[in-house]
Design brief:
This protein is α/β, with parallel strands linked by helices. The protein has seven helices and twelve strands. It folds into two domains: 121 residues, Rossmann fold, CATH 3.40.50.720; 111 residues, NAD(P)-binding Rossmann-like Domain (Rossmann fold, 3-Layer(aba) Sandwich), CATH 3.40.50. Strand 1, helix 1 and strand 2 form a beta-alpha-beta unit. Helix 1 packs parallel to helix 7. The protein binds NADP nicotinamide-adenine-dinucleotide phosphate.
């Protein structure tokens, strides 16, 4: 390794933004954040950012090699499974340390009424017997899984609008970026007479208020479980990520 250390952070999350900001303040460290390019106006605080896919495992391995990356931190969203497996394979190929920043999943409290499912398709299958008016908070990429539910009504929240070619279910689009406040979430559910929520188990605080609001209002939450992640070292937050990074730099 050269005196200057080059870190690649795979981003797309608040944790990645926080870690990139903290890591860039370490003398002698160059941080590059990589984004998939899904969001029109991403939150970018990294001095160096690259946007777009790498072209699979080999593309990422080439990038790591060409850019002389010393350490790879995978701070992607818990539901972005493909890039995490690609990162594991590419880091192994190139022979550099890799860390996954995985925020802990939400856990139900005794007051919660969760129906836990493995996929959006499984969530969609439950809905007709559960509710008529649904708050769908799974982002915009997988709305098609609910498009056949033409007799139900959906309030669909996401950052950017869905692609025009993607079929979506009937209802209303709400284009908003978190964090969301509890009082607003409560009002939103009441105003739209929502009877159930569909959510990914994303973890973290930014989108947790809807879960509290559902608990307060006694609404069921169809909770989509996380996909598997590759083996490897994980930390729960950016400060633990920073500790790992500093330990690697001192080796
Ligand atoms: N899935 C979610 O619910 C969700 C929610 C919030 C934010 N995000 C963020 O949105 C991005 C895309 O999510 P996804 O579910 O589509 O991911 P994915 O299914 O794991 O990845 C699909 C492809 O997108 C490219 N990609 C993903 N993350 C990338 C990154 N950080 N930098 C460069 N290329 C990346 C890779 O393309 P190549 O194979 O060409 O390299 C990857 O194979 C992720 O960065 C994630 O952190 C996802």
């Amino acid at each position: 390794m050269s005196a200057q250390k080059r870190i690649l952070i795979l981003g797309g999350t608040r944790d990645a933004v926080e870690l990139a900001t903290q890591a860039a303040a370490i003398p002698g460290v160059v941080v590059v954040t990589s984004l998939a390019g899904r969001t029109r106006e991403p939150v970018i605080r990294s001095e160096k950012t690259r946007i777009g896919g790498f072209g699979g495992i080999s593309g990422l391995a080439d990038y790591l090699h060409q850019q002389r990356i010393d350490l790879l931190i995978d701070a992607t969203h818990p539901f972005a499974a493909q890039i995490s497996f690609n990162a594991a394979a590419a880091a192994h190929q190139v022979g550099i340390p890799r860390l996954m920043l995985v925020r802990p999943a939400w856990q139900p409290t005794p007051e919660d009424c969760w129906l836990t499912v493995e996929s959006n398709a499984a969530a969609a299958a439950l809905l007709p017997d559960l509710a008529q008016r649904i708050f769908l908070t799974i982002g915009r990429q997988e709305l098609a899984a609910f498009a056949h539910l033409q007799l139900l009504w959906f309030l669909m929240r996401m950052i950017d609008p869905p692609h025009p070619d993607v079929p979506i279910p009937p209802g209303k689009l709400l284009l908003e970026r978190g964090p969301f406040l509890l009082e607003n979430e409560r009002s939103l559910l009441q105003e739209h007479k929502i009877e159930a929520i569909v959510s990914k188990n994303s973890g973290g605080t930014a989108t947790y208020a809807k879960i509290i609001a559902a608990r307060e209002l006694g609404l069921p939450v169809v909770m989509v479980q996380r996909p598997a992640i590759p083996d490897g070292e994980t930390v729960p937050d950016s400060s633990a990520g920073l500790t790992w990074l500093k330990a690697q730099l001192n080796r």
